[in-house]
Amino acid sequence: MSTADDYEASYRALAVCLAARVPVILWGPPGQGKTSVIRAIADYQGRHLEILLASIREPQDFAGLPVISDGAARLVAPDWAQRLSNVKNGILFTDEVNTAPPSVQAALLRVSLDKVAGDCDLGQDTSVAAAANPPEQAADGWDLAPPLANRFCHLPWELPTEVVRDGFSGRWPNYEVALPVDSELSGAQTRERVRVAGFLSARPDLTTVIPGTASEQGRAFPTPRSWDMTATLSGWVTATHQSEGVRRLLVRGCIGPGASAEFLTYRDNLDLPDPEEVLANADRFVIPSRADQLYVLGAGVLAVVRSNLTPDRWDAAGQVFERIALAGYPDIAVAFARDWIRERPEGRMPREAVLRALVPLLKEARLI
Predict the structure, then answer these.
(1) Which residues share a beta bridge with 140?
(2) Which of 144, 228, 265, 302 lies 20 to 30 A from 343 at CA?
(3) What percent of the chain has pLDDT over 90?
(4) pLDDT in tens, 324-347
(5) What is the pLDDT of residues 62-101, one digit of tens each?
């Protein structure tokens, strides 16, 4: 049974998904206030909300109705899509998704990820949310098709007794998630992408894992798409100062329980210096002992240099890659040195020691 703390974490995770524009689906028994909480968040954020009951819709209600105009066929968007396209920052909420027949689920594919219905662009500032009951509790429910399931972050949703009790007393909880500063969000997401890249370099077998059963294929599982959602949402967690419980919910909701447990353990034990500190001490930072740690460090250094490129910072990055190569990891140094050279400020030449260490490796790899 869920607790008030569980509910708060799920609420905040949902709010983060809506703010980050990552499609999210709520899983829980009937009557748990899934629609009500979407309404509450939309009202609080002042966003236009469209609510659709997927179980009574036809494929053309999402894919558009084909018509002939001036000798050419086009897909006329439904009225809800036109309303969303005419506003900024809207929310589309489709309820009872897994009771919709497979043909309707297929029509939802493009809406969920590309945010296009018929020939109507809903706008990338539109958030997409959905709700579903577990198949055993749904009326004529299906498991979600894997292509549709893989487009969502899957969150558990259940109202604990204390939340219902307080709600009937007039105090339904509302947990605000303030929007982050753009620079802080950009830096946080860059660091998360680097961590994901480092993890997948150590565990390439977890890049794509298609589950073996239909029920598991209808929930979260790892693919490059869901790893991208993982990095995006984990960056939002950091930038909006959410708890690690919210991070665990979101990561698990994107890539499933097994991969998320391994990734979060890896992330918690990475223990690397900040890339800015490495740049500031390029000649004396402690070189990590693991190849995956070095990969994460190198990618982080390259990312922060790109975000604030100056000749001195570019020089320091070259010295970092030089030291990585001389420490016995030429393949990792080469992986970043080519992109580092491409970022060279006009009129700036690398230090002679850096050239001696990196140029032969780049020539050997036929990268220059």
Answers:
(1) none
(2) 228
(3) 33
(4) 888 888 888 888 888 888 888 888
(5) 877 777 777 676 777 788 989 999 998 899 999 988 888 8
Could you please state the CATH topology (level 3) that the domain comprising 1-177 is classified under: Rossmann fold (3.40.50)
Q: How far apart are the first and last CA of the chain?
A: 60
Give the residue extent of every domain in the chain. Answer: 1-177, 181-269, 275-364
H, E, C per residue of the chain: CCCHHHHHHHHHHHHHHHHHCCCEEEECCCCCCHHHHHHHHHHHHCCCEEEEEHHHCCCHHHHCEEEEECCEEEEECCHHHHHHHCCCCCEEEEECHHHCCHHHHHHHHHHHHHCEECCEECCCCCEEEEEECCHHHCCCCCCCCHHHHCCCEEEECCCCHHHHHHHHCCCCCCCCCCCCCHHHHHHHHHHHHHHHHHHHHHCHHHCCCCCCCHHHHCCCCCCHHHHHHHHHHHHHHHHCCCCHHHHHHHHHHHHCHHHHHHHHHHHHCCCCCCHHHHHHCCCCCCCCCCHHHHHHHHHHHHHHHHHCCCHHHHHHHHHHHHHHHHCCCHHHHHHHHHHHHHCCCCCCCCCHHHHHHHHHHHHHCCCC
Predicted TM-score of the model (pTM)? 0.84
